[in-house]
Amino acid sequence: MPAVSILKPLCGDEPALYDNLATFCRQTHPHYQLVFGVRDGADPAIQVVRRLQQDYPERDIALAVNGARHGSNPKVSNLINLLPLARHDLLVLADADIAVEPDYLTRVSAPLADVRTGVVTCLYRGRAMGGWWSRLGVQFIDGWFAPSVHVAHFGGSRSFAFGATIALRRDALQAIGGFAALADRLADDYWLGELTRRHGLVTVLSDVVVRTDVTEDSLAELWRHELRWMRTIRSLNPAGFAFSFITFTWPMLLLGLALAPGAIAIALLLAGGAARSMLAVADTRRGAGASGVDLAAVLTAPLRDLLLLAEWAAALTGSRVHWRDNLISVRDRLPAAPPSYPSSPSRKGTLPERTP
């Protein structure tokens, strides 16, 4: 199996950071490298990486500390700065808050053996790390976002790529202009997939589902995070976003009852509400591996849908979002020519000819 470089941009000591990163040190893939990057020499994530190097001496673990900025997206700057340390032609990008199973790397890199593959990406399931609000955040991921991707995928769409995991070959990255092509783009994960698709390459949705931590412990934090997601979705697919409100079960049921009150409407409301609550229970149990009924998931399903509707309405306007300590525009535009950036040792590869 080909060797792989895992690229991990870090920022701060997030909850469960060591445990999540350690899952990447326990991969069964025979030959791989871990490359971490931080932008500040005082970043507490550095100590987490040093601990990993001590606890897993058999692993090839590199760390880049480089504060150079290459655009408005700090994560992409981090990737640009750490890429020169990557020694292999297969690259796997994964966010810091992701945890994976031991066979993850082998499974997500396998489709790259086909030269027609541009990127391989994974969906993710949420794990609540805070209190009640983080559980609502998990329901956003498991009960609305992931199902919407499955529906789009079933319908033939491949217009996605998720920061939870993106695997690609180095030659595909070079063909699109490297990470520099993403330096001023908020939705860097989406555009990494989109630019490879524009080169005639295929996006593969892996059957691997990774786990992501949901850490928001207040309504304000949850609102900022999910509003960023919603405005980003709107910027990428305005028409689809405009009509996505029809998937918000409880608001639509209540609207139907208001427009056509009566016994039939009440019966439909009860049936639809019961179905929505059962789906919430199924999503929560599947994500946590639980065997009992999660009553909280049932009771909070209406609130979750109403909050989703409010976020959707707020996302219809506005073009700026909060990301960590940065205020970033969601108006992604392709530059005429991407700027240059530090490169790793040259490795040649051949891409298939671009399809018309």
UniProtKB/TrEMBL annotation:
GO biological process, one term: glucosylceramide biosynthetic process
Pfam name, any one: Glyco_transf_21
Cell location: Membrane
Any one of the GO CC terms: membrane
Entry's transmembrane regions: 241-270
Pathway listed: Sphingolipid metabolism; Lipid metabolism; sphingolipid metabolism
Keywords from the UniProt entry: Glycosyltransferase, Membrane, Transferase, Transmembrane, Transmembrane helix
Membrane topology: Multi-pass membrane protein
GO molecular function terms attached to this record: ceramide glucosyltransferase activity
Region (Disordered): 337-356
Domain of life of the organism encoding this protein: Bacteria
The name this protein goes by in its record: Glycosyltransferase
Naturally occurring in which organism (per UniProt): Duganella callida
